[in-house]
Description:
Blueprint: E1 4-9, H1 13-24, E2 29-33, E3 46-47, H2 49-57, E4 68-70, E5 72-77, E6 80-85, E7 91-93, H3 96-109, E8 113-116, E9 121-124, E10 127-130, E11 133-134, E12 137-142, H4 149-153, E13 159-172, E14 181-186, E15 189-197, E16 200-207, H5 214-220, H6 222-228, E17 238-247, E18 251-252, E19 255-257, H7 272-289, H8 293-318, H9 320-332, H10 334-344, H11 355-367
Parallel strand pairs: 1-2, 1-12, 2-8, 5-14, 12-19
Antiparallel strand pairs: 3-7, 4-7, 5-6, 9-10, 10-11, 13-16, 13-17, 14-15, 15-16, 18-19
Amino acid sequence: MPEWDAFVVGGGPAGLASAIALSQKGYRVCLADCASPPIEKACGEGLLPDSRAALRKLGVELNLAHGAPLCGIGFQEASLSFQAAFPNGTGIGVRRPVLQKLLIERAEQLGVEIRWGVKGLAWQGNGLTQNGRPISAALAVAADGHNSRIRRAAGLDAAKRSSLRYGYRRHYAVNPWADCTEVYWRDRFQIYVTPVSGTEVCVALVSRQQKLRLDEALRLVPEIGERLAGHRFSTTEMGSLTVQRRLKRIWREGLALAGDASGSVDAITGEGMGLSFKGAVALAEAYSSGDLRRYQRAHNEFFERPRQMSSLLVKLGDFPAVRKRVFAGLAKRPDVFSDLLAIQSGMSSFFDFTPSQVLGFSREFLSA
């Protein structure tokens, strides 16, 4: 009998969520990471309402003691601005170390063995090893990020499509001025502002330009730069990649990929965390059924809508003339933006638009 039913590589939110979901099914789970908490990463730190719902399935409840409420999303560019409330509840802005701590506590509560500072984990032949010695586990779960070494060694690196942008984030000690995530648009980059407590905001930049950093971007967006002027940084600037990648396969015998290692969408949708949590639940369900093909099918299904929406939004960032017409139309027809947010939240589809909405928005788009 293997020592472990499942051995998870990666102690970020995706790995911890996978360990929790598998443990909830009664499996003996070990999790290992080469780092030690708190493990920081450059991300927008906003969780949408469905992300909070996925966390509840894992037994993790976020409340105002952990962060700041997010009631919706707002877009701004020059004189144009519009926003909409989430149709399916309230999101939350929460610092990544806070979220990781809650996930660790839940995993330990369920009996997951967690090992920090573990070196030498690799996939060799048909199994997981540490420093060349086989690890006795019926299932290995690779939650080791975008550039997963285990994925590559296991021959699962083939992707159907992939795109890359650059992200940087920093926290400011300032009282939030909005109860939503604000997205400030400029040509080929966006700045996100998300409240993460009553006295702090997370400011994130996502761009095609590798050398564009936050200070320069904030000078190009004075409406936000002036708000932050004079307020101290509560963290230093941190960089990361945001990748949109669809893998051809996310499992093989004895191995499943999780989180960003299993594929990802651009950060522009804010759904990365939520997809990791949904994936963890789907993996545990499939493994308990004895058929990891169910994990592949579920993964493809819940990734499809965010992929479509992120592709659409990234294209708006790349084509300024089209974006400005679209935003002019949305500013005059905020009901259309509300319905688009409902589509992103999975509450409706493009087929739910009424003819009057389509005709009205088309008129505003053409006249902009």
